[in-house]
Every structure is written in structure tokens, then in C-alpha cells.
Amino acid sequence: MGRHYDEAAIPNELRRNFNVYDRIGELGLHLGSFEDEVTSLAGAGIAGVVLHEGGLVYLSGTGGGTYPMNDDPDRIEHGKAGARDAADVLIRRLHWALSCGGEGDLNDVLYTVKALGMVVTPGGGATSAGPPVTNGFSFRWHSVFGGPSSDYAVNGVDPGGFAGIHARSAIGGFDGRFSIEPEIIVAVPAVLAREIISNRGWVFPLPPVMLEKVTAARAGA
Length: 221
Hints:
single chain, alpha+beta, CATH 3.30.1330.40, 6 helices, 16% strand
């Protein structure tokens, strides 16, 4: 497990018993490279990730899918696939937000706190597509970090634990040229959050001066 995770106040019965990166590999997720994923905040309008020194990590939403949603089963399956893709984007973003300065990684995620799925359902949202489409996002999180609806669950129980299950809202009624925009909040050990903040700040992508610092440290390692 992660260096910080091992020291966290989690009951032994609920501790994750697998390497998150093993599951990521088995599920075919791609985490990209430092050069492509660790970028400058210069000119940005919003942050992709904000860390609180208490250990909460807030990830901005990202779009998934290419069609608006309705109650057609094929359209919902398209939305669920787009939601899984969005989860993969946020998992990749979280990986680099925790690891780019060498402080931690995804194995230090304690548990998942809250997700919001904003589903594109033009015409006032008169459809029940919101929850099933957002399940594509939520259940991907289960599969990576552990949860009752993961790809690894048997009879509703994931032998790896429950760190991926989360509180959630899933709502429709939005217009847009995509299917869903989900966002999520996770918890990491406060000691890790403080280490990241003291080393390179609380925001990702990185402020230009911090990107220079992290890149230089990585080159000299």
C-alpha cells in the first residue's frame, strides 16, 4: 500500500488489500506521462484538482459521451460508457495530482467521499437516465478502489474492500453536446495533503514556478 495509507486510521477489517495500480492495469486504464499530464496553470480559468490540508481532494468535472441522454436503452449504454471514460480521465488526473512531486500515489487514497453526475437530458430532464448513466462513472470508481458494484465483486461484495463507494447525486435537465459531466471528492491522509501543499501548493495543474521546481527535481532524481 501507499506509504501514507499504511499509517492511516482505518479499521483493519476495512483496509484495502490490493495494489490499485494492479487493477488499473487489468482494467486497461492508461495514466499517460509526466510530460503530457503535468502542465502549467498559466492562463487557466479553473483548477483540475484542489487539495485541502485536512485531506479532502476536490476534482473538477469532465465531459463524457457525445450524445444527449433519453430513456432509450442504447443511448443509456452510450452514456454509461462515456461516464466510464470520464472516470478514467479523473483517475489519471488524480494519479498525477498526488504523485507528480514524489509525495504519494493512488494507493494513498483512503476512500471516496462524494460524486456528482450532471447528465445531459434536454427538454427539462423528463427521463430517468440520470442514475443509470452516472453508474458508469461510480462503478468504475468501485472497480479501481474497491466497492460492491465493482468488476471484482462477488454477490455484491468486493474482496478488495469498499474504498471506491461514495455518496452521490445524479441529476439531469442540462443541455450540452455530451452525455454527462461527473465530478468527485476523495480523501487522502492529511499528512500527505500537507506534504503536497508544502512542496508544490494546493492546486493542480501546477503554478508555473512549481512546475519548474517539480520538473527540475524529477530531472535530478
